[in-house]
């Protein structure tokens, strides 16, 4: 793993924001040339997948399990400016459990927020995890890193909406999930930034009233014992992956037992952190 990542560990302020608000933004995690490359990969994948699924060019689409669909998506898995913050929150016993690429084309010109609304649908991530635990708050278990390939630093650009602090509330803190409660806010994430968020945070996508398509790549990380939410079609990546990338992509040298009682070979991230004197829970 790139040792440059040691300069981008989770800061005390980021840890405080994550605990209090359930999210934080990190600007400038991707340089302009990487953003440009990723946009080419996103547009290529989006076009191909829309054709396969018969989806119209105007519709907002989530392409799941995109990590294996283009080589350019692999380096973000353990990107030096974001990944240290993931282990800073979750520790070393982690994996990639889910990826989705969201492409929100501009709304048709005759539509407006006043006439057509914000297009919200607040939810917590991970489906049944929100039903199967009889406790409040439920455990976090996973988080997502969202890489913004579009400038959403202004409202109305298909922004990611959140209700800060709502990650500790099992019930939706409002009456209608399509209506923002008073404390809901659009996250103003600039081009090349990343948003880290707790999967329990009540959040939503929104309609894009800007001229540019809104493109965001979501990388979901969880503890290794969680069954992935995707098919994880990544076998073709494995030959050129580092041991830590293999851990993140779900390789276990100890079979099923290795996901709950890992050997050192199963979790090279632990060894790497110890070698670099990083204390991690
Ligand atoms: Fe979500």
Summarize the structure.
By secondary structure, this protein is an alpha+beta fold.
Which helices and strands appear, and what pairs or packs with what?
Layout: H1 12-21, E1 23-26, H2 32-53, E2 61-64, H3 83-90, E3 94-104, H4 113-116, H5 129-132, E4 142-148, E5 160-162, E6 185-187, E7 194-198, E8 203-204, E9 214-223, H6 243-248, H7 268-275
Bound molecules: fe (ii) ion.
Fe (ii) ion (FE2) binds at residues 123, 125, 203.
Describe the protein.
This protein has 281 residues and is of the alpha+beta class. It has one domain (3-230): q2cbj1_9rhob like domain (Jelly Rolls). The protein is built from seven helices and nine strands. It has helices at residues 12-21, 32-53, 83-90, 113-116, 129-132, 243-248, 268-275; strands at residues 23-26, 61-64, 94-104, 142-148, 160-162, 185-187, 194-198, 203-204, 214-223. Strands 1-7-4-9-3-2 form a six-stranded antiparallel beta sheet. Strands 6-5-8 form a three-stranded antiparallel beta sheet, with no helix packed on it. The radius of gyration is 19 Å and the shape is globular. The chain starts with 11 loop residues before the first helix and ends in a 6-residue tail after the last helix. The model has no long low-confidence stretch (mean pLDDT 96). Fe (ii) ion is lined by residues 123, 125, 203.
Q: Count helical runs.
A: 7
In total, the number of strands is 9
How many domains comprise the coordinates? Answer: 1
Please indicate the percent range of residues in DSSP E strands (runs of 2 or more).
Answer: 15-25%
**CATH architectural type:** Sandwich
Largest sheet: number of strands, sense, barrel closure: 6 strands, antiparallel
Average pLDDT metric: 96
Instruction: State the CATH superfamily name.
Output: q2cbj1_9rhob like domain
Reported by name, the CATH topology is Jelly Rolls
Give the overall shape: globular
The helix/strand order is HEHEHEHHEEEEEEHH
Give the termini separation.
Answer: 19 Å
The CATH class label is Mainly Beta
How big is the Rg? 19 Å
SS class: alpha+beta
**What percent of the residues sit in helical stretches (DSSP H or I)?**
10-25%
Strand order of the largest sheet: 1-7-4-9-3-2
**Cofactors and ligands:** fe (ii) ion
